[in-house]
Amino acid sequence: MNERACALLLAGLVGAGPGARAAPALTGHGEGWDERHLQESDTEEIRQTFAGGARPLQVVVDNLNGSIEVVGHDADRVELVARRTNRARSPEKLQEAKRAVQLDIDAEPGRVRLYVDGPHRDRDGRTHDLGARHMGYQVDFDFTLHVPRHAEVDLRTVNDGDIRVTGIRGGYDVENINGGIEMLDVGGAGRVYALNGEVHVTFERNPSDESFFGSLNGDVEIEFRRDLAAELRLKTFNGDVYSDFEVSAATADAPERERRNGKHVYRVGKSFGVLVGGGGPRLEFDAFNGDIRIVNRD
Length: 298
Description:
Strand order of the largest sheet: 1-18-23-16-14-12-10-4-8-5-2
């Protein structure tokens, strides 16, 4: 198969019916919860700068509530601005929030780690958020970081914020539970996953190693340079797969094909692979309840 210009590659896996439903968003607030109950609030801004001379340099942000923005710059340092917002249903609960939830900052040569700790963490560091309805308060951290372009980033948040990364050339592991992920003009290879949100990535330089891009309840759109050469592994359940690039499938991996409205439609019961530009690193795409779009950005 050799199809051009947004050829429709896949239209739902076998077994996907019209009654399929998306998984609910994960939240700890509870049904009927109204955040207007959190009438007490205050804010705090945290600013710090860290040396970034070591290579490789890893920047880790492990958040619960709030957004994360990371921007690559040419300076050899990490600049942090974190805006903390405390909200509670009483003055007493506001003070409890300030005591219970803390931002742990750990900086050493080659690594800067920002970790939001509190009652929502167990001993293994896993998140078990009981929500503002149970706790009587909520603490949000909105992070903005400027990091050297070569930095590797490991970013996570759960509620009330998107993740945005711009101008990074290093590796990445990025995950958002109840929000979207946008990565612009990046290089490197890694993993990007949004459980309940859309994923949009544009590459300044195509990945040279294995990578994964996925969402349970959202579209996945990845924009590559015209010289893309890769093996693409594709899977969706309630969505379609489109590609701007000419593709060819290995004989043993080719899905069943039919003609529909003048387009080639490929139906499979599992993930399938196609080659772009003769093949290269394996790039995996998984959108359970959404479309996958492989875009030529040039």
